[in-house]
Design brief:
single chain; 336 residues; alpha/beta; 434 Repressor (Amino-terminal Domain); Rossmann fold; 6-stranded parallel sheet; 6-stranded mixed sheet; 12 helices
Length: 336
């Protein structure tokens, strides 16, 4: 196994002290030009790679940030992560990614591991409702930005308005002539699904449509969605459309409806929420509420780095705009 060269090896080959090598490479302290040339030649010959962590600790920064996500298998989070990583790279930062599998203990563990690695800050896309450990990070002074959800106005966050986005989506279904709209909602312990449900209720009320609890289907995860929708359709409930609170749920709704013999959108329209990369390629292509996932990650990283680099300001909760993407899964209906 090839042993990596150390700063002492460079110093010995160049015939100088280790501190001179350090000064020559930092560029911050003047070094005799011929001495610097010898140092650089030795660096090249030995293929010396400076210890970035040691250098960072000496300067008080490691130029490393952590990103904690609840489920990297959910297509939402690779898009968010790419936005974070691209922004971090642009500013010369390295990203450490942690996946918690929606386990609160693993989330706490990830925070502690990142702190032990001396990260300069953390971006956290928590899925839980408990926040004591998050406030501890904030109170410790370590820069922190939340993604997808907020925790009051005292912690920086980047998110969307789930309530109004769902309201606009369901209002679109109503404008398209749908009156009997079922909702397939995710885990109701998560605030984002609570908000999307309330947006659904508001849209119905705003249009003078009575809320029917029998049209509410709650699923804990995508795996149970197919069976839940299949069972619902077997009961013969008369509906015009499904509002699925995520595109992953919409995929299962479409599969269950088509397997039950329904045609989309001729028999039942389907509206999703997310606009994931696969959504335009479903059969039919999915009409959905687009949330700017890449930009959310990008903005979170930009905000975190600005805090790390001393651009002090009061915490900011950034609420990004969503938009409706019309494709082929929603059909206009005419009512007498």
């Amino acid at each position: 196994m090839k042993i990596m060269a150390t700063i002492k090896d460079v110093a010995k080959l160049a015939g100088v002290s280790s501190s001179t090598v350090s000064r020559a490479l930092s560029g911050k302290i003047p070094v005799d030009e011929k001495t610097k040339e010898r140092v650089l030649a030795a660096v090249k010959q030995l293929n010396y790679q400076p210890n970035a962590l040691a250098k960072g600790l000496k300067e008080g920064k490691t130029r490393t940030i952590g990103l904690i996500v609840p489920n990297i298998c959910n297509p939402v989070f690779p898009l968010v992560s790419r936005g974070v990583e691209d922004a971090a790279r642009k500013h010369g930062y390295t990203l450490i990614l942690c996946n918690t599998d929606e386990d609160l203990d693993r989330e706490r563990e990830a925070i502690q591991k990142l702190r032990k690695h001396w990260v300069d800050g953390i971006i956290l896309a928590t899925s839980g409702t408990e926040n004591i450990h998050i406030r501890e990070v904030k109170n410790s002074g370590l820069p922190l930005v939340l993604l997808i959800r907020k925790m009051g106005e005292e912690i920086d966050a980047v998110m969307i308005d789930n309530y109004n986005s769902a309201f606009k989506g369901v209002s679109y279904l109503i404008r398209m002539g749908h009156r009997k709209i079922a909702i397939v909602n995710g885990d109701d312990k998560l605030i984002l699904y609570q908000q999307r449900f309330q947006g659904y209720i508001h849209a119905l009320k705003d249009a003078g449509i009575a809320f029917d609890p029998s049209l509410v289907l709650s699923v804990s995860n995508e795996d149970s969605c197919y069976e839940t929708v299949s069972s619902f359709l077997q009961r013969g409930k008369d509906i015009d459309a499904f509002f699925a609170a995520s595109d992953l749920l919409a995929l299962e709704v479409m599969r269950a409806a088509q397997d039950a013999g329904f045609s989309i959108p001729e028999d039942i329209s389907v509206l999703g929420f997310d606009d994931l990369p696969f959504s335009p390629f479903l059969n039919p292509p999915l009409t959905t509420v687009h949330q700017p996932l890449y930009q959310m990650g990008q903005n979170a990283a930009e905000r975190l780095i600005s805090i790390i680099e001393g651009e002090q300001s009061k915490p900011i909760v950034q609420v990004l705009e969503t938009k409706l993407i019309e494709r082929k899964s929603v059909l206009r209906r005419c009512h007498e």
